[in-house]
Amino acid sequence: MRLMAQCLNASIRLAGGLVGRPLSSCVRRNWLYFPFISEALSCVPFSFGWKFRNAVYKQILSGCGDDTILHFGVTLEDERTRIGRNVWVSVGSYIDYAEIGDSVLIGPHAVLLAGGAAVFVTALFADLTPTATVAGLAATGQYDSAANTFTANRIAVLIND
């Protein structure tokens, strides 16, 4: 049984590599739009899906580590995204251009964005519903004590829905 599982996993990795190479070439030549590929891959269900996504993304992304699990519905926006080793991204998450380190857990329906404040605010309002609450907020940046202002260069918002 274990040998059969190893053979099945190896065949999924092989299939993902065979699909990922031509897709990577098409994305780099701008023949295919990467977010459309990511949307299609996000629909592949079950453990086959996250194993297949890992194998394909290893060919397309700037980096995708071993033991990375991208569950059903996880969409990546930018092929420059880097994902480290031992990363777990839960159902329905959306990741814009990001560099995710090793041993990271991202909860369900998380939204990781890159870009300016206008993009962040627009996406935040899109995620807020009448029943949503902000459960946490974290920011890094610079505090100016003379002006009593804080300029954030990174903001993370945890939303409960």
Comma- or semicolon-separated keywords:
single chain; 161 residues; alpha/beta; three-stranded parallel beta sheet; elongated
Task: Tell me about this structure.
- It is a single chain.
- The chain is an alpha/beta fold and 161 residues long.
- It has 2 domains: 2-112, no CATH class; 117-160, no CATH class.
- It contains 4 helices and 11 strands, in the order αααβββββββββαββ.
- It has helices spanning 2-28, 34-42, 46-60, 117-127; strands at 63-64, 69-70, 75-76, 82-83, 88-89, 94-95, 99-100, 105-106, 111-112, 133-144, 149-160.
- Helix 1 (2-28) crosses helix 3.
- The N and C termini lie far apart (42 Å).
Question: What does the secondary structure layout of this molecule look like, with pairings?
Answer:
Elements lengths: L1 H27 L5 H9 L3 H15 L2 E2 L4 E2 L4 E2 L5 E2 L4 E2 L4 E2 L3 E2 L4 E2 L4 E2 L4 H11 L5 E12 L4 E12 L1
Parallel strand pairs: 1-4, 2-5, 3-6, 4-7, 5-8, 6-9
Antiparallel strand pairs: 10-11
